[in-house]
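Exercise 7. Predict the structure of Methylcobalamin:coenzyme M methyltransferase from Oxobacter pfennigii.
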Amino acid sequence: MLTKRQNLLETIRGGKPDRFVNQWEAFGGVMGDPCKLRTRAERGGPDAVDSWGVTTTWPANVPGPFPVHDYEHKVVKDITRWKEVVHAPSLDVPDSAWDDVKAQASQIDRNEQFLTFFIAPGIFEQAHYLMGIDTTLLNFYEEPEAMHELIDYITDWKIKYAELVCKHLKPEAILHHDDWGSQINSFMSPEMFEEFIVPAFKRLYGYYKSHGVELIVHHSDSYAANLVPYMIEMGIDIWQGGLKSNNLPELVKKYGGQISFMGGINNGIVDVLDWTNELVAREVEEMCTSCGKLYYIPSMCGGGPGATDVYKAVSKEIDRMSSVMF
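Solution. The predicted structure, encoded as tokens:
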């Protein structure tokens, strides 16, 4: 029997896996914030301001925090003057600040799992955190020069952060968050994506790959089928979070061998108040049978291991499908 790590590599390399990779089982996740970058509101608590100056709020009745983007709270009110108000957080922290994530990493069995470091927000997300997503998308059209400058600034900073990550943690995989679409389409056209976003991620993911990172796992729980060729160009190994609306079986058929796909089991379908084991079984079976054994990892689209009660039910059904199909 292959280890979880071996089985993942066989799956994404077109080899001979002996079962489905079951959601996140092959990734030994490490989460931490040594540079104090992600200060955010707590559920039901007061608003908070992070190290970029972004205000976040988390009402008690919603699943997660989000930026506050009324005029008063926007960091960037005029993109042509972004240099006056955007100041990247300092990365000058003592080596001891990395002790917690190093301790987490020491618990990962690297024979079984890839040591995986989680990073959020992404480059596009950081831009729209600063000014609002609607304003960001308008600025791509109206002020492209300023947007190129801001994205370059964010990317330069992220590469400096990547230097610290690789120095202190030496991860084998990176799980990077950057949502690029809604449920039905990408936020921007492929042409605009190619102009503004692709060069930034080629630089960032290129840095990680050249400094010992074996796998780039990119999270975007959205529609982004029209962006897959650019994901390949960026160096993404696994696109995690692809919704059913992407027609993953067709993407596996067309691009398998160049990139792999992890997702297809929509949280919005199975993670509902009246969910049943029968519902979960139907969705898991549909995705496993239609996508096949290679270049596909069945998984819920949003959230990590054990994020919801439904996660265990999905994992159980994936194991059942492994016994059926392998």
